Amino acid sequence: MAIVIVGAGIGGLTTALSLHRAGFRDIAVYERADALRPLGVGINLLPHAVRELTELGLGERVERLGAAPGTLAYYNRYGQQIWSEPRGLDAGYRWPQLSVHRGRFQMELLAAVRERLGADVVRTGHRLVGVHDGVARFATAAGEVSVAADLIVGADGIHSALRRQRQPDEGEPIWNGLTLWRGTARAPGFLDGRTMIMAGDAEQKFVAYPIGPGVINVVAERRGPGFAGPNADWNRTVDPAPVVALFADWRFPWLDVPALLAAADEILEYPMVDRDPIDTWTHGNTTLLGDAAHPMYPNGSNGASQAILDARTLAFHLATAPTVRAALDAYAADRRPATTALVLSNRRQGPEQVMVLARERAPDGFAHIHDVIPPDELTEIATGYKKAAGFLPADLNERASLTPTVFSGVLP
Question: Residue 216 in contact with residue 184, Cβ under 8 Å?
Fold first, then answer.
Protein backbone atom coordinates (compact mmCIF):
# COMPACT_ATOMS: atom_id res chain seq x y z
CA MET A 1 0.00 0.00 0.00
CA ALA A 2 1.45 3.33 -1.07
CA ILE A 3 1.26 6.02 1.62
CA VAL A 4 2.05 9.72 1.16
CA ILE A 5 2.60 11.93 4.22
CA VAL A 6 2.43 15.68 3.64
CA GLY A 7 4.66 17.49 6.14
CA ALA A 8 7.91 16.53 7.87
CA GLY A 9 7.20 18.08 11.24
CA ILE A 10 6.84 16.13 14.46
CA GLY A 11 3.49 14.65 13.42
CA GLY A 12 4.54 13.65 9.91
CA LEU A 13 7.85 12.10 10.93
CA THR A 14 6.28 10.19 13.82
CA THR A 15 3.63 8.93 11.42
CA ALA A 16 6.31 7.58 9.10
CA LEU A 17 8.07 5.82 11.98
CA SER A 18 4.78 4.45 13.34
CA LEU A 19 3.69 3.09 9.95
CA HIS A 20 7.08 1.47 9.45
CA ARG A 21 6.87 -0.11 12.93
CA ALA A 22 3.41 -1.42 11.99
CA GLY A 23 4.76 -3.18 8.92
CA PHE A 24 4.19 -0.69 6.09
CA ARG A 25 7.06 -0.08 3.69
CA ASP A 26 5.85 2.03 0.74
CA ILE A 27 5.98 5.39 2.56
CA ALA A 28 7.10 8.81 1.33
CA VAL A 29 7.15 12.11 3.22
CA TYR A 30 6.85 15.36 1.25
CA GLU A 31 7.95 18.61 2.90
CA ARG A 32 7.36 22.10 1.60
CA ALA A 33 10.59 23.61 3.04
CA ASP A 34 13.69 23.34 0.89
CA ALA A 35 15.69 22.10 3.88
CA LEU A 36 14.86 20.97 7.40
CA ARG A 37 16.62 22.91 10.14
CA PRO A 38 16.38 22.74 13.95
CA LEU A 39 14.04 25.69 14.38
CA GLY A 40 11.95 26.65 17.39
CA VAL A 41 12.34 26.62 21.14
CA GLY A 42 11.38 24.29 23.97
CA ILE A 43 8.38 21.95 24.02
CA ASN A 44 7.11 19.38 26.48
CA LEU A 45 6.47 15.74 25.68
CA LEU A 46 4.00 14.35 28.21
CA PRO A 47 4.23 10.77 29.50
CA HIS A 48 1.61 9.43 27.08
CA ALA A 49 3.71 10.72 24.17
CA VAL A 50 6.97 9.48 25.69
CA ARG A 51 5.38 6.05 26.03
CA GLU A 52 4.73 6.01 22.28
CA LEU A 53 8.25 7.18 21.48
CA THR A 54 9.63 4.49 23.78
CA GLU A 55 7.60 1.81 22.01
CA LEU A 56 9.05 3.11 18.76
CA GLY A 57 12.53 2.49 20.20
CA LEU A 58 13.31 6.19 20.61
CA GLY A 59 12.90 6.70 24.35
CA GLU A 60 16.57 6.86 25.30
CA ARG A 61 17.45 8.94 22.25
CA VAL A 62 14.88 11.57 23.13
CA GLU A 63 15.78 11.54 26.84
CA ARG A 64 19.33 12.49 25.92
CA LEU A 65 18.06 15.61 24.14
CA GLY A 66 16.58 17.43 27.12
CA ALA A 67 15.48 17.37 30.73
CA ALA A 68 12.87 15.49 32.76
CA PRO A 69 10.87 17.82 35.02
CA GLY A 70 9.78 16.38 38.35
CA THR A 71 7.35 19.15 39.35
CA LEU A 72 4.85 21.50 37.73
CA ALA A 73 3.92 24.55 39.81
CA TYR A 74 1.51 27.42 39.20
CA TYR A 75 1.93 30.88 40.76
CA ASN A 76 0.13 34.21 40.64
CA ARG A 77 1.85 37.33 39.31
CA TYR A 78 3.26 38.02 42.79
CA GLY A 79 5.08 34.69 42.96
CA GLN A 80 2.62 33.09 45.41
CA GLN A 81 2.11 29.37 44.80
CA ILE A 82 -1.35 28.28 43.69
CA TRP A 83 -0.81 24.61 42.90
CA SER A 84 2.06 22.16 42.65
CA GLU A 85 2.13 18.55 41.53
CA PRO A 86 4.72 15.90 40.67
CA ARG A 87 5.29 15.09 37.01
CA GLY A 88 6.64 12.19 35.02
CA LEU A 89 8.26 9.38 36.96
CA ASP A 90 7.81 11.35 40.18
CA ALA A 91 4.04 11.20 39.64
CA GLY A 92 3.96 7.41 39.27
CA TYR A 93 4.07 7.18 35.49
CA ARG A 94 6.11 4.41 33.91
CA TRP A 95 7.47 7.00 31.47
CA PRO A 96 8.98 10.44 32.12
CA GLN A 97 7.83 13.83 30.95
CA LEU A 98 10.53 15.36 28.76
CA SER A 99 11.31 19.00 28.02
CA VAL A 100 13.30 19.29 24.78
CA HIS A 101 14.24 21.79 22.11
CA ARG A 102 11.67 21.36 19.35
CA GLY A 103 14.20 21.63 16.53
CA ARG A 104 16.60 19.10 18.05
CA PHE A 105 13.71 16.70 18.60
CA GLN A 106 12.55 17.07 15.00
CA MET A 107 16.09 16.41 13.76
CA GLU A 108 16.26 13.25 15.90
CA LEU A 109 13.00 12.02 14.38
CA LEU A 110 14.33 12.84 10.90
CA ALA A 111 17.51 10.88 11.58
CA ALA A 112 15.46 7.88 12.76
CA VAL A 113 13.25 8.03 9.65
CA ARG A 114 16.27 8.05 7.36
CA GLU A 115 17.93 5.21 9.27
CA ARG A 116 14.86 2.98 9.18
CA LEU A 117 13.02 3.92 6.00
CA GLY A 118 15.85 5.15 3.79
CA ALA A 119 17.76 8.35 3.07
CA ASP A 120 15.39 9.45 0.28
CA VAL A 121 12.07 8.91 2.08
CA VAL A 122 11.77 12.58 3.10
CA ARG A 123 11.59 14.78 0.00
CA THR A 124 11.97 18.50 0.62
CA GLY A 125 10.98 21.37 -1.65
CA HIS A 126 7.53 19.90 -2.36
CA ARG A 127 4.54 22.21 -1.71
CA LEU A 128 1.16 20.50 -1.86
CA VAL A 129 -1.06 22.01 -4.55
CA GLY A 130 -4.02 19.67 -4.18
CA VAL A 131 -5.30 16.10 -4.03
CA HIS A 132 -7.70 14.65 -6.59
CA ASP A 133 -8.74 11.02 -7.17
CA GLY A 134 -5.95 9.63 -5.01
CA VAL A 135 -3.22 11.72 -6.63
CA ALA A 136 -1.29 14.38 -4.71
CA ARG A 137 0.13 17.21 -6.78
CA PHE A 138 3.19 19.10 -5.55
CA ALA A 139 4.85 22.26 -6.81
CA THR A 140 8.65 21.99 -6.96
CA ALA A 141 11.49 24.07 -8.34
CA ALA A 142 11.57 21.71 -11.32
CA GLY A 143 7.85 21.88 -11.99
CA GLU A 144 4.73 20.09 -10.79
CA VAL A 145 5.01 16.50 -9.55
CA SER A 146 2.08 14.08 -9.26
CA VAL A 147 2.16 11.16 -6.84
CA ALA A 148 -0.51 8.44 -6.70
CA ALA A 149 -1.17 6.86 -3.32
CA ASP A 150 -3.60 4.54 -1.55
CA LEU A 151 -3.54 6.87 1.47
CA ILE A 152 -2.60 10.55 1.82
CA VAL A 153 -2.03 11.95 5.32
CA GLY A 154 -2.07 15.72 5.82
CA ALA A 155 0.39 16.48 8.61
CA ASP A 156 1.19 19.91 7.22
CA GLY A 157 0.42 22.09 10.23
CA ILE A 158 -2.02 24.83 11.13
CA HIS A 159 -1.90 26.25 7.58
CA SER A 160 -2.51 22.80 6.07
CA ALA A 161 -3.02 22.83 2.31
CA LEU A 162 -4.99 19.58 2.49
CA ARG A 163 -7.32 20.97 5.18
CA ARG A 164 -7.77 24.15 3.15
CA GLN A 165 -8.83 22.09 0.14
CA ARG A 166 -11.41 20.24 2.25
CA GLN A 167 -12.50 23.36 4.21
CA PRO A 168 -12.22 26.14 1.60
CA ASP A 169 -14.34 28.65 3.55
CA GLU A 170 -12.59 28.24 6.89
CA GLY A 171 -10.38 31.30 6.66
CA GLU A 172 -7.34 32.15 8.75
CA PRO A 173 -6.54 30.75 12.20
CA ILE A 174 -8.44 32.35 15.08
CA TRP A 175 -6.42 34.72 17.27
CA ASN A 176 -7.51 35.07 20.90
CA GLY A 177 -5.74 38.40 21.47
CA LEU A 178 -2.72 36.95 23.24
CA THR A 179 0.83 37.24 21.97
CA LEU A 180 3.58 34.84 23.02
CA TRP A 181 7.30 35.55 23.07
CA ARG A 182 9.54 32.53 23.32
CA GLY A 183 13.24 31.97 23.70
CA THR A 184 15.96 29.97 25.44
CA ALA A 185 18.42 31.39 27.93
CA ARG A 186 21.66 30.09 29.38
CA ALA A 187 21.07 30.70 33.06
CA PRO A 188 21.30 29.02 36.46
CA GLY A 189 18.41 26.82 37.49
CA PHE A 190 15.67 27.94 39.84
CA LEU A 191 13.87 26.26 42.74
CA ASP A 192 15.07 22.62 42.73
CA GLY A 193 16.32 22.74 39.13
CA ARG A 194 13.64 20.27 37.93
CA THR A 195 10.50 22.40 38.18
CA MET A 196 8.38 23.77 35.37
CA ILE A 197 6.74 27.01 36.53
CA MET A 198 3.83 29.04 35.23
CA ALA A 199 3.09 32.41 36.78
CA GLY A 200 0.35 34.93 36.05
CA ASP A 201 -3.21 34.74 34.76
CA ALA A 202 -5.35 35.06 31.64
CA GLU A 203 -4.02 38.55 30.83
CA GLN A 204 -0.30 38.07 31.36
CA LYS A 205 1.78 34.99 32.03
CA PHE A 206 5.35 33.74 32.27
CA VAL A 207 6.53 30.14 31.83
CA ALA A 208 9.99 28.71 32.43
CA TYR A 209 11.49 25.23 32.52
CA PRO A 210 14.88 23.63 31.92
CA ILE A 211 15.47 21.85 28.60
CA GLY A 212 19.06 20.87 29.32
CA PRO A 213 21.98 21.61 31.65
CA GLY A 214 22.08 25.38 32.16
CA VAL A 215 19.45 26.03 29.46
CA ILE A 216 16.04 27.45 30.39
CA ASN A 217 13.10 27.73 28.02
CA VAL A 218 11.14 30.94 28.58
CA VAL A 219 7.66 31.95 27.40
CA ALA A 220 6.12 35.38 28.00
CA GLU A 221 2.50 36.08 27.18
CA ARG A 222 0.38 39.23 27.13
CA ARG A 223 -3.13 40.12 25.99
CA GLY A 224 -3.86 43.38 24.23
CA PRO A 225 -3.87 45.35 20.98
CA GLY A 226 -0.66 46.39 19.33
CA PHE A 227 0.94 42.96 19.49
CA ALA A 228 1.05 40.14 16.95
CA GLY A 229 -2.04 39.39 14.92
CA PRO A 230 -3.04 35.97 13.57
CA ASN A 231 -0.98 36.40 10.41
CA ALA A 232 2.29 37.16 12.16
CA ASP A 233 5.42 35.28 11.14
CA TRP A 234 5.74 32.34 13.52
CA ASN A 235 9.52 32.68 13.52
CA ARG A 236 9.75 36.47 13.71
CA THR A 237 12.60 37.72 15.88
CA VAL A 238 11.78 40.83 17.93
CA ASP A 239 13.60 43.26 20.19
CA PRO A 240 13.50 41.75 23.70
CA ALA A 241 13.51 45.12 25.50
CA PRO A 242 9.75 45.85 25.26
CA VAL A 243 8.97 42.29 26.36
CA VAL A 244 11.31 42.54 29.32
CA ALA A 245 9.67 45.85 30.26
CA LEU A 246 6.23 44.20 30.42
CA PHE A 247 7.55 42.00 33.25
CA ALA A 248 9.73 44.58 35.02
CA ASP A 249 8.00 44.06 38.38
CA TRP A 250 7.93 40.26 38.22
CA ARG A 251 10.80 39.61 40.61
CA PHE A 252 10.13 36.73 42.95
CA PRO A 253 12.33 35.51 45.82
CA TRP A 254 13.10 32.40 43.75
CA LEU A 255 13.20 33.86 40.21
CA ASP A 256 14.02 37.18 38.52
CA VAL A 257 11.69 37.07 35.50
CA PRO A 258 12.93 40.18 33.63
CA ALA A 259 16.55 39.09 34.06
CA LEU A 260 15.79 35.65 32.65
CA LEU A 261 13.95 37.13 29.66
CA ALA A 262 16.84 39.53 29.03
CA ALA A 263 19.25 36.57 29.02
CA ALA A 264 17.49 34.84 26.10
CA ASP A 265 19.59 34.35 22.97
CA GLU A 266 16.70 35.73 20.91
CA ILE A 267 12.98 36.32 21.35
CA LEU A 268 10.55 34.89 18.80
CA GLU A 269 7.04 36.31 18.57
CA TYR A 270 3.98 34.13 18.01
CA PRO A 271 0.25 34.84 18.00
CA MET A 272 -1.80 32.45 20.12
CA VAL A 273 -4.14 30.95 17.54
CA ASP A 274 -6.16 27.82 16.95
CA ARG A 275 -9.02 26.71 14.71
CA ASP A 276 -12.55 25.57 15.38
CA PRO A 277 -12.91 21.78 15.48
CA ILE A 278 -14.25 20.29 12.27
CA ASP A 279 -16.76 17.47 11.81
CA THR A 280 -14.56 15.19 9.75
CA TRP A 281 -10.87 14.71 9.07
CA THR A 282 -11.32 12.08 6.36
CA HIS A 283 -12.33 12.54 2.74
CA GLY A 284 -11.89 9.53 0.47
CA ASN A 285 -8.37 8.21 0.95
CA THR A 286 -7.12 11.34 2.75
CA THR A 287 -7.04 12.25 6.42
CA LEU A 288 -5.56 14.91 8.70
CA LEU A 289 -3.21 14.62 11.65
CA GLY A 290 -1.64 16.86 14.31
CA ASP A 291 -2.03 20.62 13.91
CA ALA A 292 -3.61 20.11 10.49
CA ALA A 293 -6.47 18.27 12.25
CA HIS A 294 -6.72 20.02 15.62
CA PRO A 295 -4.53 23.08 16.21
CA MET A 296 -4.85 24.07 19.86
CA TYR A 297 -3.57 26.68 22.28
CA PRO A 298 -0.45 25.55 24.15
CA ASN A 299 -2.21 25.46 27.54
CA GLY A 300 -1.36 22.11 29.08
CA SER A 301 1.69 21.57 26.83
CA ASN A 302 -0.18 19.10 24.64
CA GLY A 303 0.28 20.01 20.97
CA ALA A 304 3.24 17.81 20.07
CA SER A 305 2.07 15.01 22.35
CA GLN A 306 -1.33 14.84 20.66
CA ALA A 307 0.29 14.68 17.21
CA ILE A 308 2.37 11.72 18.38
CA LEU A 309 -0.76 9.98 19.69
CA ASP A 310 -2.48 10.64 16.35
CA ALA A 311 0.40 9.04 14.48
CA ARG A 312 0.49 5.92 16.61
CA THR A 313 -3.30 5.52 16.58
CA LEU A 314 -3.51 5.89 12.80
CA ALA A 315 -0.78 3.30 12.25
CA PHE A 316 -2.41 0.89 14.69
CA HIS A 317 -5.77 1.00 12.91
CA LEU A 318 -4.24 0.77 9.45
CA ALA A 319 -2.45 -2.39 10.54
CA THR A 320 -5.45 -4.00 12.24
CA ALA A 321 -8.57 -2.89 10.30
CA PRO A 322 -9.81 -4.84 7.26
CA THR A 323 -9.83 -1.84 4.90
CA VAL A 324 -8.28 1.60 4.66
CA ARG A 325 -11.70 3.22 5.08
CA ALA A 326 -12.41 1.19 8.20
CA ALA A 327 -9.01 2.17 9.58
CA LEU A 328 -9.59 5.87 8.94
CA ASP A 329 -13.03 5.70 10.54
CA ALA A 330 -11.60 3.98 13.63
CA TYR A 331 -8.75 6.50 13.82
CA ALA A 332 -11.15 9.44 13.71
CA ALA A 333 -13.49 7.81 16.23
CA ASP A 334 -10.59 7.43 18.65
CA ARG A 335 -8.91 10.77 18.16
CA ARG A 336 -11.38 13.41 16.94
CA PRO A 337 -13.65 13.55 20.04
CA ALA A 338 -10.65 13.59 22.38
CA THR A 339 -8.81 16.35 20.54
CA THR A 340 -12.00 18.38 20.09
CA ALA A 341 -12.48 18.33 23.85
CA LEU A 342 -8.88 19.46 24.33
CA VAL A 343 -9.17 22.34 21.86
CA LEU A 344 -12.24 23.60 23.71
CA SER A 345 -10.69 22.99 27.14
CA ASN A 346 -7.58 24.93 26.17
CA ARG A 347 -9.78 27.87 25.16
CA ARG A 348 -10.88 27.83 28.81
CA GLN A 349 -7.20 27.79 29.89
CA GLY A 350 -7.04 24.00 30.47
CA PRO A 351 -5.17 23.19 33.70
CA GLU A 352 -3.97 26.81 33.85
CA GLN A 353 -7.51 27.74 34.89
CA VAL A 354 -6.22 27.70 38.49
CA MET A 355 -4.25 30.88 37.75
CA VAL A 356 -7.32 32.55 36.26
CA LEU A 357 -9.42 31.70 39.31
CA ALA A 358 -6.74 32.97 41.69
CA ARG A 359 -6.65 36.29 39.85
CA GLU A 360 -10.44 36.61 39.76
CA ARG A 361 -10.90 35.78 43.43
CA ALA A 362 -7.79 37.40 44.89
CA PRO A 363 -6.44 40.04 42.47
CA ASP A 364 -4.09 41.47 45.13
CA GLY A 365 -2.77 38.10 46.30
CA PHE A 366 -3.69 35.84 49.19
CA ALA A 367 -2.52 34.65 52.60
CA HIS A 368 -3.16 30.99 51.68
CA ILE A 369 -4.45 29.62 48.39
CA HIS A 370 -7.05 27.42 50.10
CA ASP A 371 -8.73 30.60 51.33
CA VAL A 372 -9.30 31.38 47.65
CA ILE A 373 -9.65 28.03 45.87
CA PRO A 374 -10.63 24.94 47.92
CA PRO A 375 -8.20 22.02 47.61
CA ASP A 376 -10.87 19.78 46.06
CA GLU A 377 -11.44 22.34 43.29
CA LEU A 378 -7.72 22.55 42.54
CA THR A 379 -7.45 18.76 42.41
CA GLU A 380 -10.51 18.46 40.19
CA ILE A 381 -9.08 20.89 37.63
CA ALA A 382 -5.74 19.09 37.46
CA THR A 383 -7.26 15.60 37.35
CA GLY A 384 -9.95 16.53 34.86
CA TYR A 385 -7.42 17.82 32.36
CA LYS A 386 -5.25 14.71 32.64
CA LYS A 387 -8.30 12.55 32.04
CA ALA A 388 -9.36 14.57 28.99
CA ALA A 389 -5.85 14.53 27.55
CA GLY A 390 -5.36 10.80 28.15
CA PHE A 391 -2.60 10.82 30.72
CA LEU A 392 -4.08 9.92 34.10
CA PRO A 393 -1.25 7.83 35.58
CA ALA A 394 -3.27 4.68 36.30
CA ASP A 395 -5.09 4.77 32.96
CA LEU A 396 -1.93 5.35 30.93
CA ASN A 397 0.11 2.76 32.79
CA GLU A 398 -2.55 0.08 32.20
CA ARG A 399 -3.65 1.01 28.69
CA ALA A 400 -3.02 -1.54 25.96
CA SER A 401 -0.14 -0.85 23.60
CA LEU A 402 -0.68 0.87 20.25
CA THR A 403 1.96 -1.37 18.69
CA PRO A 404 -0.07 -3.86 16.63
CA THR A 405 0.46 -7.57 17.24
CA VAL A 406 -2.28 -8.90 14.94
CA PHE A 407 -2.30 -7.60 11.38
CA SER A 408 -5.12 -7.31 8.84
CA GLY A 409 -5.52 -7.51 5.11
CA VAL A 410 -4.70 -3.81 4.66
CA LEU A 411 -1.00 -4.61 4.76
CA PRO A 412 0.53 -5.54 1.39
Answer: yes
